[in-house]
Design brief:
Layout lengths: L17 H4 L5 E5 L3 E4 L6 H7 L18 E10 L11 H5 L2 E3 L4 E9 L27 E7 L11 H11 L8 E2 L2 H13 L3 E8 L4 E8 L7 E7 L3 E8 L4 E9 L9 H35 L6 E8 L1 H8 L19 E4 H4 L8 E4 L9 H10 L7 E7 L2 E7 L4 E7 L19 E7 L6 E5 L7 E2 L1 H13 L18 E3 L4 E6 L10 E4 H25 L6 E7 H6 L2 H6 L11 E5 L1 H11 L1 H13 E3 L6 H9 L12 H14 L7
Parallel strand pairs: 1-5, 7-9, 10-13, 13-15, 16-25, 18-27, 19-21, 25-26
Antiparallel strand pairs: 1-2, 3-4, 3-5, 6-8, 8-9, 10-11, 11-12, 14-15, 16-17, 17-18, 19-20, 22-23, 23-24
The chain binds FE2/S2 (inorganic) cluster (FES).
């Protein structure tokens, strides 16, 4: 590795042998804000930034593949192989000391400027989801107001028995089925006597029998709350419910604080293996507590009156949240510690709710089909239908489930980071300034773009990338292999520095000081991502003996699917072709499923059975998957007969545009 740090006015610093570097303790100062941190020599700037409390964009997990962790060395020394990563920088950026934080290591005191684009920004978090108020209300926790006769020499019934009998008289479960924790018993005599034997008992359905969660003085029956939580790898979403009348009181969302320990699942597991498990557990808890506190403050309620919390997360997130070691999930033979639904006392894991509140986590099918997908399934209602539903949840990884009330097949795979903005030169997450919609005029090739928050464009997020791909195909700027037609004489279609490219926004229109382009290499990465998803869908259909026409509906879950233009998704061959009215966006299925399981005890009871019913297909062990993937590495597919309407549409476009051509 070549020393490439900059020391303005002093030239390049001498190289220090690596063996000696670790013994140094240089100070790294981050601008703006002058955050300082002292780290061992040889630490990457990315790790130093984490230590300084900065959350940087690490879309590729720090592998030097996405270019999103751009920083500028203003003073001091760092080693960085600039030639190797030259493609990520403009000449102007090079002159200003550009490097990738994940690949540059500190060898002396250094002053680093971190541009706003390299920090994780406020993301468009999918909080609102349709149809929440229509979920049948039948919660698993209830309050009973008991007005008890005081004891006497003629009636020496113990306090607990007196309360339990009072509960039964109010229509509650029989006394023998209710377990009372020690801390409730310790407070019980005082509460009853201070309140002249008028009290409110909170009783929750437990995995076995019932649990007496609390006994409070007086009538508190109006104050009973529950929370549903989507514990995502990137974000946390919480819904706060009144469990007395089934109203949503507030919603809240924030980042998962674990991001500072790694952006993707694998880097979190690796972090936990380096004795970071308790830190990750604490960060997950803090993230949930932040959302619960915001929601409780918004609703004006006391968090202590939240008596149930339902958490949906993927298998690794669930392990980390509960402080269970996920290490064996990433080494052969890839075994999780637990797959079934679990319940834990809130006080035991530090959740900001009543200390005896039950915190439930969803069951999982496999390492890759976790509780978030079981929640998605609940949200689709596919287990109640005879017709086959195909549910697809797309992120850096994708999960697909095909089935109905009788059977379900599932698979998962890596979609690659392209659809989340990684491995695409101007790709970005759905943050303000991301181009999220694009249409291209077929005559002038001028794009019309809309950005998140309506501000000047900074890059392109997933939905915008799919729009672009479809529009470039329709306007014959690219052929079906994704090759850009450089015969087109137009200023937007040009030979870029490394690859042919299409200019989406001119420098003067953007907030990044350069043209925003989509390159042929970006297109190739996007095609590979969409091919993996299409190949997986076709593998599931094949395993079920179905054709695309047999699918009753396709449900997209997750933020990516929610903003996706369905027609464009079919045009590029992301999913099998089908009538558009059969394609639905279910929004954030994980939070919808968590809501359902929170307020409907019958649905919650079914979760373990649903998880057991799903057959998981390992795509790597499925020989036909690779063939299907390869066939899908075309727009929309090598076999046009699978996309007859897209074929018709593209032929019509071709005929109209005559001058441009695309490869049949
Ligand atoms: Fe540094 Fe992707 S995180 S290049």
């Amino acid at each position: 590795m070549e020393g490439a740090g900059r020391s303005p006015g002093r030239g390049r610093s001498p190289r220090i042998p690596r063996s000696g570097v670790e013994n140094l303790m240089p100070t790294v100062t981050f601008l703006p804000g002058y955050r300082k941190v002292t780290v061992p020599g040889g630490t990457t700037i990315l790790d130093a930034a984490r230590a300084a409390g900065l959350s940087m964009n690490v879309v590729c997990g720090g592998q030097g593949k996405c270019g999103k962790c751009l920083v500028f060395i203003k003073e001091g020394t760092a080693t960085f192989d600039r030639d190797k990563y030259r493609r990520f920088f403009s000449d102007d950026e090079i002159a200003r000391g550009a490097c990738l934080a994940c690949q540059a290591t500190v060898v002396g005191d250094v002053l680093v400027n971190v541009p706003a684009e390299s920090l994780i920004q406020e993301q468009k978090i999918l909080v609102e989801v349709p149809g929440q108020e229509g979920i049948p209300f039948n919660p698993a926790v209830r309050k009973y107001v008991v007005r008890l006769e005081p004891p006497s020499l003629d009636d020496t019934t113990p306090d607990l028995t007196r309360v339990l009998e009072g509960i039964e008289k109010q229509g509650g479960p029989p006394p023998t089925s209710i377990y009372a924790p020690l801390d409730v018993l310790c407070f019980l005599p005082l509460v009853l006597r201070r309140n002249e034997w008028n009290a409110t008992a909170t009783v929750a359905l437990a995995p076995v029998g019932y649990r007496l969660s609390s006994v409070d003085g007086g009538d508190t029956s109006e104050r009973l709350y529950g929370a549903a939580v989507d514990l995502g790898t990137t974000t946390v979403v919480a819904y706060l419910w009144s469990l007395t009348d089934g109203r949503i009181l507030a919603t809240a969302s924030n980042y998962n604080r674990q991001i500072s320990c790694g952006e993707d699942i694998l880097s979190r597991v690796n972090f936990s293996r380096k004795s970071g498990l308790s830190q990750l557990q604490q960060l997950a808890t803090e993230s949930i507590n932040e959302a619960l506190t915001t929601a409780a403050d918004t609703a004006g309620i006391d968090r202590e009156e939240i008596f149930e919390v339902m958490v949906a997360g993927n298998t690794v997130m669930t392990h980390l949240f509960l402080g269970i070691d996920p290490a064996y999930m990433i080494t052969e033979p890839y075994i999780p510690v637990v797959r079934r639904m679990l319940s834990t006392g809130a006080g035991q894991i530090g959740i900001a709710a009543h200390r005896n509140a039950e915190v439930y986590t969803f069951p999982a099918v496999s390492n890759f089909i976790g509780g978030d997908i079981i929640a998605d399934i609940l949200a689709t209602g596919m287990t109640d239908r005879e017709e086959a539903t195909l549910m697809v949840d797309i992120g850096t990884n994708f999960e697909a489930v095909l089935g109905n009330s009788d059977w379900m097949l599932s698979c998962a795979g890596a979609a690659g980071p392209a659809l989340e903005g990684g491995e695409v030169l101007f790709g970005m997450r759905a943050n303000p300034g991301a181009i999220e919609r694009v249409a291209i005029d077929a005559e002038t090739l001028t794009p019309t773009c809309s950005t998140i928050n309506g501000v000047r464009p900074r890059g392109i997020c997933g939905s915008g990338l799919i729009d672009l791909l479809a529009e470039l195909l329709r306007t014959c700027v690219i052929d079906r292999t994704g090759r850009i037609n450089l015969d087109i004489s137009h200023p937007r279609v040009r030979k870029g520095q490394y690859y042919p490219e299409y200019v989406v926004a001119w420098k003067k229109e953007t907030s990044v000081g350069k043209d925003i382009v989509m390159t042929e290499n970006d297109i190739r990465n996007l095609i590979m991502s969409k091919a993996a998803i299409h190949g997986a869908c076709m593998t599931l259909l094949d395993a079920a003996g179905l054709e695309p026409g047999d699918i009753g509906r396709v449900c997209f879950a997750g933020a990516f699917g929610n903003y996706l233009n369905k027609e464009n998704a079919i045009t590029v061959g992301l999913i099998p072709e089908m009538p558009l009215d059969r394609v639905e966006n279910i929004g954030n299925g994980a939070i919808t499923g968590a809501n359902i399981a929170l307020i409907n005890r019958k649905r919650r009871k079914e979760l373990d059975a649903i998880a057991r019913r799903i057959t998981y297909i390992e795509l790597n062990a499925e020989p036909s998957f690779m063939d299907r993937y390869t066939s899908s590495c075309f727009l929309p597919h090598t076999d046009f007969t699978l996309f007859p309407h897209v074929q018709q549409m593209l032929e019509a476009c071709r005929a109209k545009q005559g001058v441009r051509s695309w490869q049949a």
